[in-house]
Amino acid sequence: MVALRSRRLESLLSSPLDRLNAERIRNLVTNGVTEEFDLDYKRELYGGSDQEKKALASDVAAMANTAGGAILIDVDEDDKARATAADGVDRSDAERLQGFCIVGRD
């Protein structure tokens, strides 16, 4: 269950966040959707080092302190923060759980 309801994100994705799939994410690339305060693209999965854990915590905290939102893993972006690729790299089950992070704000 997704605690966050974002009409803006659901409109961009043409889907409720709890029904998000790879096709919807690829549509962000097709449409050149730009990152915003509630949408963050990350090319790589956060790693397990202390520095990478701090980066994840910082990204989640920044989003939680604004309006909430979604961090999408495996999405490349250009120098204007527009989605340019979403290759869908194979992941383990544990990595898949980390691959979609929704940050809500009450």
Structural features, described:
The protein is α+β, with helices and mostly antiparallel strands and 106 residues long. Helices cover 35% and strands 17% of the residues. A hairpin with a 5-residue loop joins β3 (76-77) and β4. The protein is globular, with a radius of gyration of 13 Å.
Reconstruct the topology from this structure:
Elements: H1 7-13, H2 22-30, E1 39-42, H3 50-64, E2 69-73, E3 76-77, E4 83-85, H4 93-98, E5 100-103
Parallel strand pairs: 1-2
Antiparallel strand pairs: 2-5, 3-4
How would you briefly describe this protein structure?
The protein has 106 residues and is α+β, with helices and mostly antiparallel strands. It has four helices and five strands; from the N terminus they run H-H-E-H-E-E-E-H-E.
